[in-house]
Amino acid sequence: MTHLTKNQIEDFERDGFLSPLDLFSCDEAVALRASLEAIEREFADRNLLSVRSGLPITTAWAWDLVHDARIVDPVSDLLGPDVLLWSMDWFIKEPGSTYVSYHQDATYWGLEPHDVVTAWVALSDAGPATGPMKFLPASHRGPIYDQEDTFAEGNLLSRGQTIRGAIDESTAVLAPLATGQMSLHHVRVVHASDPNTTDDRRIGMVLRYCGCHVRQTKVDGDRAILVRGRDTHGHFEMIPRPRVDRGEAELALLREYGRTRHRALHSKDYLQDESQDPRQGHSQGQSQEHSQGHHSQDQSQDQSQDQSQQ
Ligand SMILES: O=C(O)CCC(=O)C(=O)O
Q: 7, 66, 116, 144: which is deepest, by most CB within 10 A?
């Protein structure tokens, strides 16, 4: 049984996050990390953002992983019986100064209503020195804040999205995780993370789930994977299990998915006046997520690079 207790559900509803939860054994997490890093080595000359985020579309083990009952059971306790995976993102914080600024995911994903939960899975140690997630408890019950695109150096968010104005950090709760543990957070909760001061990578496999009733309000044709129950709404096009790992059809679907997701995440809702778009002339940064103007050796991968998230 991997379902949440009544108390855990109440904690999540009160705070907007739940952490830590035991998920994988250390051996399982190490094996998953090895699978990821083998793929990173194999596709080192490609756009790794796209390769990693596209895994459930292109690679059977990743498709199976996002269906794992140990993740989907607790998620469905929060979202109900019919659940979609909207996105697999990777927040890999190498040792160094990169960080994530305070933001709310709900501000720019276009998903409505906000019945969206992230499972943040530690495939390496995410202890206090690695810059684990920190949350402002109960902020998911407050307003959606105005965010600006700062494109700040070292910010792992693609546009350096940052809540405008001062944040009262005094209530922030650090959510360190051991290898194989996960946290769950609500799409509206305010969160951030500090630099990784250790010698190892901090690898977060970040799975975004939503109820089947949730819509993509920014674009048509967004895609998702049904991981639990039935989809009687049809708001998303369904992504099938990969038949051939990184086969032609799977890569074609990844490109389509990437184009749609790019439109959703970079639509004018967030850049109302293109002449003021700070991305003009912005050089390729180190963001974990969408990077603009990148020219990889594989244009097809390039076109789907922005599928991930922030
Ligand atoms: O991994 C991090 O440090 C930030 C992750 C994040 O912002 C998210 O999962 O929404």
A: 116
